[in-house]
Amino acid sequence: RNGIVEAINHIRKPQCHGGWDWGITQMITGFCGPVKLVATDDFRIDYIYSDQAFSTDYSKCELCVYADITAADGAKSTVTNRFVIDRPRLWWPNGMGEQAFHEVTLDVKGRKIKKRIGLRKIEMVNETDVDPVSGMKGMSCFFRVNGRAFFAKGANWIPCSAFENEQTPARYRDLLESAKAANMNMIRLWGGGQYEKDCFYDICDELGLLVWHDFMFACANYPDGPFLENVRHEVRHQIKRLRDHASIALWCGDNECRGCFRALWDYVIADIPYYFSRFRKRIDLLDAAVADYDPARTFWPTSPCNGPNESGMEEKEEKDAIKGDLHFWGVWHGGDPFNRFTELRPRFCSEFGFQSYPSKETCLTFCKEGDLSLDSPVFDHHQKNEGGNRRIRNTMRRYFRDPVDFDSMLYLSQVQQALAIKTAVEAWRSLTPWCMGTLYWQLNDNWPVSSWSSIEYGGKWKHLHYHAKRFFEPVAVMAVRKTGAADLEIWAVNDGPEPVTRTFTLEEWAFDAQSPRTVRAQREVTLPPGRAVQLDRVSAGEDTNRVFLSLSLGSVVNDGFFTEYKNCALAKAKVRVSSVVSAPEGAFDVTVETDRPAFYVWLNAAGIRGEFSDNSFTLLPGRPRTVRFVPKSRTGTLREFSLALTVTHLNENCRESSSAPTEDKGNAAALRALGLDVSN
Ligand code: BMA
């Protein structure tokens, strides 16, 4: 659990070293990163940083570069130079344009230092408004880059390894490239971890991944007094060190330090005004540091909060989803069903998550075959959230029939995690532009563990990561099933700056069919930029457990279910790999086909590092799919790859039910005939 090491909040080191609900307790101590002792009788360059100011149409940028210099006798000075850049090439986040850089060279007495700078203006927009649904006063929470508002799509980042020597540039690059490959444009650097190594920010700049940057405080009650004096030096250094990274979107005071007051400590509840005033002192100090050392960036007091003023830092309740950022843990910690996500109207959800197990390959890095059981001590040791395994298992009963064996348990846990997060993101993207951000918890792990991550320790993508790639597509189509509704709402969203026209197709399929039962719609639709549009509303009538919808919008596909999978009469599909051929650069093209609709079709090349271009998808009869496997390390032969390749799908992993599905339509029709309500 969090904070096993008592009073870790009094030590300025990554707070998760003291234990976290996904992390090993590992109080490593010592220098972090390279250490140099440099002798000089001349001077030292402490920091180089810059300010950017744009003309209203972005045709001019005034760049002011500063260098803080300390002479050998200790005298300090700041050297300044000003440049005006006409028609600057701008830096944009992933999916919005290029990541252009300018090189700044500082030359002091022949000692040259080069720095790469991205020119761009980033703003956090907080304007009061009224929720058209509840009539309550809300406050927007979205980012604008170079004058363009955009939907933030991404995940939370924790340290990429619990072991300092494993935090290699290759590991950073692999994880961040995976984030970009999943159409993300923002990463939240979470406050219980560490101010990251330079390579993290360099890669984020290069890939166009914006960083919501917490200061490193999390889920604790921090001291005031001399402790804060120490903090002042820390944040001054970090801000000056990092502020020139184009990727940093804002500075945030901490993770959940305000939110924890009631949740964690009785002694705090007994005197909230006192503890709030202490919290406030730290937040004020951080606020002032940002104003002094990086005035162009927004300071966000704590995540989550309603906004950047004192009243915004009141305790956040669920009704406050309509103001500022939100951490929503009703699903998972609260045990709520997945469609609870559809009941909220968040402006920017910066945390929400659902756990799964790692793949068998990753489990076998810490477990023997014989210990592959939820109750074995070693497997349980790699689950740090109390009751986590129970919650995964109980949730499975809500949505799926029993897994057939332990491998299926691992598979289903990843499928249900993907389903949970997909439900949330699609519902919230359908609220665009009311909602303008979803950052799920969490991108990565810091050791092999059962957790909320979409990428396993070692880099392997879980089902969720493939779904993220699809649910974060810039132009997306989705079926939203709201709590209590029998109908599916079909929505489309276009994140780009221009309207787009695509062919929208809506087919209804029976689970045992070989072709669609009906094509309910097929038409050209034009989607305006930055606003979700409802395309249809579909009811399955009496057939909720016999049919599903297949949606497509141009090349983007999705599907819609009217009820839980366990209620559906899924067919015994025969999915087979029909061909494997070598592709350029050591890749392989794999074609799969099926005789009946198959869901969460999962390709795996055990023991070969690499990812498929798509995976965990729906496969329809008569529509073979070809996906490319790109290896990440040594390329195997076609034979080796083919031997390692396996394919499975949902129905193969669930126990068949000999009884009728639980929502028996014959029965429901009979009840309806008697005039009884069958909706519950
Ligand atoms: C969030 C995070 C972490 C934690 C996660 C899952 O609130 O900020 O503290 O790991 O929940 O419990």
Q: Fraction of residues in helices? A: 10-25%
Structural class: alpha+beta
What is the terminal separation in angstroms? 37 Å
- Give the quaternary arrangement of the chains: single chain
Can you describe what's shown?
This protein has 14 helices and 32 strands. It is α+β, with helices and mostly antiparallel strands and 680 residues long. The chain is globular and about 80 Å long. Beta-D-mannopyranose is lined by residues 20-22, 192, 219, 255-256, 327, 351, 441.
What does this entry show, briefly?
The chain is of the alpha+beta class. It contains 14 helices and 32 strands.
Keywords for this entry:
single chain; 680 residues; alpha+beta; 6-stranded parallel sheet; 14 helices; 32 strands; disordered C terminus; binds beta-D-mannopyranose
Q: How would the blueprint of this fold be written?
A:
Blueprint: E1 43-54, E2 60-71, E3 76-86, E4 102-108, E5 111-117, E6 122-125, E7 128-130, E8 137-139, E9 142-145, E10 148-150, E11 152-157, H1 169-181, E12 186-189, H2 198-207, E13 210-214, H3 226-242, E14 248-252, H4 260-264, H5 266-269, H6 272-293, E15 298-300, E16 325-327, E17 348-351, H7 360-363, H8 377-381, H9 388-399, H10 406-429, E18 437-440, H11 463-471, E19 475-480, E20 488-494, E21 500-510, E22 518-527, E23 533-538, E24 547-553, E25 556-561, E26 575-582, E27 588-594, E28 598-605, E29 610-612, E30 617-619, E31 625-631, H12 638-644, E32 645-648, H13 650-653, H14 665-673
Parallel strand pairs: 11-12, 11-18, 12-13, 13-14, 14-15, 16-17
Antiparallel strand pairs: 1-2, 2-3, 4-5, 6-9, 7-8, 9-10, 19-20, 20-23, 21-22, 21-24, 24-25, 26-27, 27-31, 28-30, 28-32, 29-31
Helix pairs in contact: 1-2, 3-6, 10-11
The structure holds beta-D-mannopyranose.
